[in-house]
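From the shared-data thread, chain only:
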Amino acid sequence: MRQDLIWRLEALGFQALFGFLRLLGVERASGLGGWLLRTLGPLTGTQKTVIRNLRIAFPDLTPDRRDALAREQWDRTGRTFAELAVMDRLTPEGGRVEVVGLERLHALRDSGKPAVLISGHLANFEVMAAVIMAAGVPCQVTYRAANNPYVDALIRKSRERYGIRLFAPKGDGTRELMAGMKRGDSIALLVDQKYNQGPEVQFFGQPVNASPGAARLALKFDTVMLPLSVVRLPGVRFRVTVHAPITVPDTGDRAGDILAGVQAANSFVEDRVREVPEDWFWVHKRWPDRVYAALDDRLASDARRNGPS
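Structure, as tokens:
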């Protein structure tokens, strides 16, 4: 009962915050979120993760450029969180989202066949789901359910305003996702989340364990991985690009083919991050512990030789 009361109070606070942000409107809500995290984010322990991630991905950045990029990513992350409250206004129909390659989504819709839509935590990644729905593609968008069931229900309700059907898989969710694809539903996956098991591939020249789900399902259903990306434009506007499909090789070596598909998906995300690094979600630990340990050892060695950088 105590836990249930805490959950209900948290949900009331969450609902009040969303209501306040909706009253502010798109521009002011986004600006407030950006200001809050730009101001508070660098003061949190997560700032260390941001800086370490930037060192791993872009080892040649100057300290000034690295600090500026860290501040800008905090601003954009804050905007993304605040914009969750007004996502029904951030759609192609609302005039704030332009789409490049929309014909690829229409072709998928008209084919009646499923595909595996992939992307990463780029800019406001929720905008891509809104574009998929607006294009009329039957699709299940996977997400991690909130620990608070009342907050989770509010999140689902807010996303239903712009047509999103959310699916929270248990475990790796493969069985449930396969059932959806058998019905003809496409699935949408973010492939840049930390994964403690699975194939090891390269991401910014460093090893990561990545989920094989996207490549495995594409291979099983003889379909493609269709990559999408989004970039943030001035004035709380966005550009979503539907890229050329990625075909997972089918050589008969299933493990090798899946590995190639997983690497292709992660290389796609890396390319997009390199294009607009400020838009990526730098606050999560993407690499395994040994990569961070190697970074710390290198920095300690450099400090002994040259002094702190």
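The mean pLDDT is 91.
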